[in-house]
Amino acid sequence: MEGPSHLVQVVVVGAGIVGAAVAYEAARAGAEVVLVDKSLPASGVTADSFAWIGGPRGGDAPDPSTVLRRRVLQDYRRLEDEVPGLRVRWRGALMWGEEQLDDGRLAPGERLVDAREVGLLEPRLKARPIRALHLESHGAIDPVAVTQALARAAQEHGARLMANSAVTALDLRDRQVTGVRTSTGSLPADTVVVTAGVDAPMLCGPLGFDLPVAPSPALLMRFTAPPGLVRTLVATPHLEVREAADGHLLVAAGYSGEIDHDDLRRAGEMMLHRLTATFDAPDIELVSVRLGTRPMPADELPIIGPVPGVGGVYIAVMHSGVTLAPTAGRLIASEIVHGVEAGQLAGLRPARFRSRAEWRPQRRADA
């Protein structure tokens, strides 16, 4: 890959998986990159992700993010080849009970399976559905390990990591962002890429841009279990569970108003009963329940692109950051380093929120 005609200075704010992917791709493209985080890489909501990797399903209604999602699996496989230590567990996903399964709406890599095949895929299920959807190409990652691998690879390409350094403001002169102010000093930049999740609106506010992003809490539960109890990623209306690389089970659960650690423990115990009712394994034990807060744009679509009316600042905020990171990072780096506008991002620009009077919500196909 050819470098830029001049050395582009890029500061990436937020070392979650999206920020790490942008830093890696921009450094690899020849930019001078600084990746800044108020803590350590992947110490925020990235660590609390269920980390299911997959493209759009055959029954999903298209939306402006669909073209982005169609490249996710290909980009993850590319990164597996490029980045040392970056691994995806390609075990597929098994779904049932969500909707009427229709042969006519299957995408490539999807197939309907009967109870016998369900039993072959998940032999420890107590009750097998008559019909299920097998997403053969889907996988999962350890989001902390992947983020750390991307950050290391970015540094190998010359990027600098500034951990434990909070960005307090963007430097603005004549409607042009010229860098950032941090708790440990100032950094100049040609472009500042804000990948700070729920903190992004605070940084954009002084620019005169109201970034419509709200916190979206969810629970991530961890259980000990016999190895191989869950072989694929199992998703039903009442349970999303997969095996992590360390052999623990991870369960994603919706937020139900939990306000303290006792509430979190009770939610975990309820899920424990659900697991033992679903799988033939009486010796599952609750390890932990974490509350993560992902960013949710007002229309539920990713927000990726320059801030309208302000030069030198670029936003990359999305609910499904773990899924989209490799594709978004590649396209963002191409835009900010080489100036190549990505048509795949056309419907996701921050400018769609410029006028509240003109804004109309658009539904996103999947999270």
UniProtKB/TrEMBL annotation:
Gene3D superfamilies named in the record: D-Amino Acid Oxidase, subunit A, domain 2, FAD/NAD(P)-binding domain
Entry's Gene Ontology cellular component terms: cytoplasm
The UniProt record lists the keyword Isomerase: no
Pfam family, one: DAO
Segments forming domain FAD dependent oxidoreductase: 10-333
GO molecular function, one term: oxidoreductase activity
Keywords of the record: Oxidoreductase
Keyword presence, Cytoplasm: no
Protein name from the UniProt record: Glycine/D-amino acid oxidase-like deaminating enzyme
The organism's taxonomic lineage, starting at the top: Bacteria, Bacillati, Actinomycetota, Actinomycetes, Micromonosporales
